[in-house]
Design a protein that fits this description.
This protein has helices at residues 9-16, 21-28, 36-49, 52-63, 67-75, 81-88, 94-102, 108-115, 120-127, 130-135, 138-143, 151-178, 182-190, 197-205, 209-217, 222-231, 234-240, 246-254, 260-267, 274-281, 284-287, 290-298, 304-311, 316-324, 330-344. The protein is mainly alpha-helical.
Amino acid sequence: MASAEPVSELLAQIESGEAPAQVLEFAARGLVPLPPGEMARALGTIFAKGETTLKALAEESFKVLPAAALLQAVTSDGVKPEQLDAIARRTSEAVVLEPLIRHKRIPDETLAWLADRIEPYLQDVLVTNQVRLLAAPVIVERLFENPHLSADIRRRADEFLEEFFLKKEREEDARAAAAGAAEVAEDTQATAAGITPAAAAAAAESEEVHQNLFARLSNYTIAQKIRLAWRGTKEERLFLVRDNNRLVAMAVLKSPKTREGDAETIANMKSVSEDVLRALSMRREWMRKYSILVTLVKNPRSPIDATLPLVIRVNHADQKKLAMDRNVPEPIRALARREIARRES
C-alpha cells in the first residue's frame, strides 16, 4: 500500500522544520515544485506547525488538491500523524478516508473527530478496528453522537462493550463464585476504588457524596470507570450512570448489581442521557414492574419514541395525570388524552 520512494529533499526540509520562511510561504501558496501527494503532506505540516498567515494560505491551496493527491499522501511511506489529521479534517472523499481510517499512524483524536461525522460505510470501516477501539474507547463514544449512525453500527458498538469490557467482569465474578469467595468478591467490589464498604456507606449518608465521587473518579480512565460501573457500590453506579461516556453509563444498566430499585431511581433521573433511558425502556424485566414503567413515562427527559408505546400500559388514573402534566412532551399528553377518551367512551 505504501510507496517505497524516498521523499524529496524539499519535503524533508518542510517536515523537519528546516525550510526557510520564504520556502514555507511558497509551499503554503502551492507554488513549490512538489508532486501532488507530497504537496498534500507539506500543507499538512504547515497546518500542524505553521503560523496563522501560512495556515490561511495553506487552506486555499488545499482546496484545489484532487482526491488522488490526498490518496497518494495517505498511502505514502513515512506520512506523519499530523498530516493524516490535517487531511482527515478537510476531506469528505470516501476513497481517501477509508485508507486513512485504517492507517496505523492516524491519531486516536482524529478517529474520534471523524467518528461522529462519517457516513455508515465508513462507520463500518472504523468499528472493525477493535484493537484501536479497545485502546481508545472515546472513539466508540463519539460514534454514538453521529446523527447518521446506522442501526447495525449501534448494535455492533454495544457488542463491543459486552465483548471487551463486561465479559471480563462476568468471568471474574464467575471465578470468584467458583472459588467460594463471594464475600471477598463483594468486599473487593466495594473497595475497587480504594474505599471500604463502611466508608462507602458513610459517604452515602453525606451530603457531599456527589462531590466526593466526582473528585475521586475524575482521573479514572474509561476502562476503570466501566469496571466500577459493573462492580461498584450503589452510590458509585448511580453516579456513573450519568457519565457523559455512553460506554460507562450503559455498563451500569448491564451490571448484575443494578436491581429494580436502582432502575426506578435511574428512570426518574433528569441528568442521564436519552440513550440510557431508551435502553432502560428496552429491558423487558424492568418494564414488567409498573412503578419503573410509569416513572420512565413521566420523566420529561425520556425519549418520546421509547415512551409513547408505554403510555397505553399506564393505568387510567396515571393517564389522567399524564394528560395534565405540562412537564412531559405534548405527544405523550395527547396520547394519554386519547386513551382516556377511549376508555371512557
